[in-house]
Amino acid sequence: MTTTLPQAAAAAAGHRPVRDVAVVGWGAIGRVVGTALAEGALPGARLTRVVDNRPLHGAPAPQADLAEALAHCDLVVEAAGQGFVRDLGTTVLTSGTDLLIASTGALTDPELAREIAEAGPGRVYYTGGAVGGLDLLQAVRGLGELTRVRLTTAKLPATLHQPWMDAELTERLRTATGPVEVMRGTARDVPARFPRSTNVAATVALAVGDPDRVEVRVVADPGATLTRHVVEAEGPHGHYRFEVNHAPDAANPATSQVVPHAVLRSLAALTGRGGQIL
């Protein structure tokens, strides 16, 4: 992207240029992120375009297709789901535009992960979303490999139902009076089966560096008024346990309420504003 004279002057004065942001996906995550940007919540970023495949009314920035957004923006925030990352992630990066990915579950496909990592000149970033402790997991990798990593996710049964489930499992979810284990596998297997509910598994895998090393257990719990994620990791250098319990988003219970605010925090770090804990 060519640096304009006002941007150069700002840089010379010790100020960072403002990022022009396109939000892709105007749902539970994108709407909160885009509205905050439009209201000036992040001085280092402004909402310039909104991309969604549905006609929008009252969006706080012009709605555009991806090509137009890439022509006007230098940063794309993905809040549209794994399909966008698979189909158009490299398109964003090869255009020279940076990409912040919320739907990390798409990256459990090793071929796609390689393509995204190698694409450019745009840079790719990932947001931590609904889970914590990722910075520590990344740090302890410097001491050696973790010998075991486990993630247990518990959500309301209705948020976990998937088209591939057979009649027996569907009935178990419908009639559950207590916790029901829905699936057990690795962070490579599980996000593909629950594309809207288990991005946390892929995010933990990104921090650990190996999706096959992360054991994932998905639990349907009719009493789960809060969505629960428990990460347990161990190695010769220590033992670690992180538990988070989030209120689900009212409009989309498959998403935790905190996720768009995690995206906004990531954007604040990218724009270099404020004293971020990185």
UniProtKB/TrEMBL annotation:
Its EC number is 1.4.1.21. The keyword NADP applies. Residues 25-119 form the Aspartate/homoserine dehydrogenase NAD-binding domain. InterPro entries: Asp/hSer_DH_NAD-bd, Asp_DH, Asp_DH_prok, L-Asp_DH, NAD(P)-bd_dom_sf. It catalyses: L-aspartate + NAD(+) + H2O = oxaloacetate + NH4(+) + NADH + H(+); L-aspartate + NADP(+) + H2O = oxaloacetate + NH4(+) + NADPH + H(+). It holds the Pfam family NAD_binding_3. The keyword NAD applies. It is an enzyme of class 1 (oxidoreductase). Keywords: NAD, NADP, Oxidoreductase, Pyridine nucleotide biosynthesis. Pathway: Cofactor biosynthesis; NAD(+) biosynthesis; iminoaspartate from L-aspartate (dehydrogenase route): step 1/1. The iminoaspartate product is unstable in aqueous solution and can decompose to oxaloacetate and ammonia. Belongs to the L-aspartate dehydrogenase family. This is L-aspartate dehydrogenase.
